[in-house]
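Human: We require from you a protein record containing the residue sequence and its fold in token form, and nothing else.

Assistant:
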Amino acid sequence: MKKQQGSFARFLPEGMEKFRIFTRAIDRLTRAGYRYIGLDHFARPEDEICQAQDERTLHRNFQGYTTKSRCDLYAMGVSSISGLEDAYAQNWRDLPNYYRAIDEGRWPVMRGAQVTCEDKLRRSVINRVLCHCSVVKREVERDFNITFDDHFARELDRLKMLEADGLVRLSEDRIDVAPLGRIFIRNIAMIFDAYLSAEKQRVFSKTL
């Protein structure tokens, strides 16, 4: 967000170096007794996060993984984002506008977006990928009254490329994230994001 932050870019790891650092961290933490939940999250097996993942009730919001699914997230502070059932809203990113709105008795919101039925469907599928590492098609069909293979025909075709790379396992009734795919789970979830271009979905080095 600040121009001077760009000066650090040349010192940051990229590509295979970044991959090796991350996989070493996974190895060290799992050998120490932690479970790899996903993305950059680890927890002890007795933690409620692990229990929620086992019970397939784990959820993800702007704060990360949480056991509080189906809860609205009300954000307070500069730049923070509220996540509601039917909308998202971001507060002002600069202090003058933020304080001005509060002083005038207004919500300090700079922008928002209404969530459509299609957004809710895709949000649910992405959540299942990131939290459960699997998508059971009949569950999605039951919750949203769709035929999964027809509705996501394009996405399933793209997933075949990831299956060839050993990142996912596709079957007639489900999609499962393979062990290697958990490291690149953002890329798998991004397949179902209608707001991202196919080119951005293939950038693996930026999603570790």
Observations:
- The longest helix spans residues 15-31.
